[in-house]
Amino acid sequence: MRQINEHASENVTKLLLANKSDAPDRCVTTEEGQKLADSYGIKFFEGSAKEDINIKEAFEALTIEIKDKIIADQRNRSESVIEPKGQQLKGGDGDGTTTEKKGCC
Prior knowledge:
Elements: E1 15-18, H1 30-40, E2 43-46, H2 55-80, E3 87-90, E4 98-101
């Protein structure tokens, strides 16, 4: 079995979808598929495109995982941004007063 990250970077969301679960002459058991998915730390689904079994559910699970990852990344990025302190700027009317300006612009 090829390494799971051989054709995709490590941060790509992955799942294992075993197709043809309706076939009587299956080559891989449910237990074997689940064990492989567990070894990679990814979700496992059995499905049948022919019978429309678990196809929608697999894509929905993948979509939710991607959305959750994006939200977590955005949250981590926003928490790591340091808010700039206000700057003291001279007033533009020449009266010698100062005006506090927040942010960078």
